[in-house]
Amino acid sequence: MSKTQTQLNPAPRYKRVLLKISGEALMGNREYGLDPDMVAQIARDVGAVRALGIDVCLVVGGGNIFRGVSVAAAGMERASADYMGMLATVINALALQNALEQIQVDTRVQTAIPMDTVAEPYIRRRAERHMEKGRVVIFAAGTGNPYFTTDTAAALRASEMGCDVLLKGTKVDGVYDADPEKNPDAKRYERLGYMRVLTDDLGVMDHAAISLARENQIPILVFSIYRPGAFAEVLSGNGCYTLVKDED
Ligand code: UDP
User: Fold this and answer.
1) Which residues of 40-59 are buried (b: 16+ CB within 10 A; e: fewer)?
2) Any idea where this protein resides (predicted)?
3) Is residue 11 part of a domain?
4) CATH code for position 24
5) What confidence tier does 9 reach under pLDDT thresholds 50, 70, 90?
6) Tens digits of residue pLDDT in 68-124
7) Which of 66, 71, 185, 234 could be a cystine partner for 81, CB 3.0 to 4.6 Å?
8) How many domains does the chain contain in total?
9) What is the pTM of this model?
């Protein structure tokens, strides 16, 4: 596995970033559900980036609780299963909000499916205003539409919020040419073009998400969310990650 650090020179300056946190990341080493230690660690990492004065918004997945496609495959109507998946992301968003507030990071949850007694409905300008006030905004319920994923929701919200970069926190510290957990010779890409990711089907995010990020020229930074402190580190141009953007 490549351990060379990615070094961008000079380090990029990000004003506003969106972090996509998959449900899988929130379950830590468990089989399903939420791992409170992992949720707390991610909250600390988010707080550390916010403390740098960077606007932060989050999109959370729900795969640790419910994945629509697999249930649809088992016989349930796809759209209904997808709505259940979107509700699962709200559970994760509330857990993350709680963990952030426990360390005094001001947050708001906005949901793409209105549920006013639980959280605010998604309103773009209001989300902007929250971030201007230094609050971390957590976007839940994906895009609000079945047949989509929270990766696509992340690319959509990053576009709407005018984010400088979309970060995808995964288990590994970037995109590899083979599975680094199975193949010790797997090499990590430092940079990749959007088209390469699409044509080689590199599995960074689904195609709809990559296409949206490409159209709106939002770089995608893939890094390990499992390593404490990595979120702030990669934003300063250090550490290990893969950057997906247009070829220079
Ligand atoms: N989902 C959906 N529309 C969206 C986002 C999510 O229908 O815009 C559903 C879909 O069923 C998906 C589930 O919510 O399987 C959980 O989201 P995702 O699989 O993206 O979560 P992650 O893999 O990031 O944990």
Assistant:
1) bbbbbbbbbbbeeebbbbbb
2) Cytoplasm
3) no
4) 3.40.1160.10
5) low
6) 788 877 899 999 999 999 999 999 999 999 999 999 999 999 999 999 999 999 999
7) 71
8) 1
9) 0.94
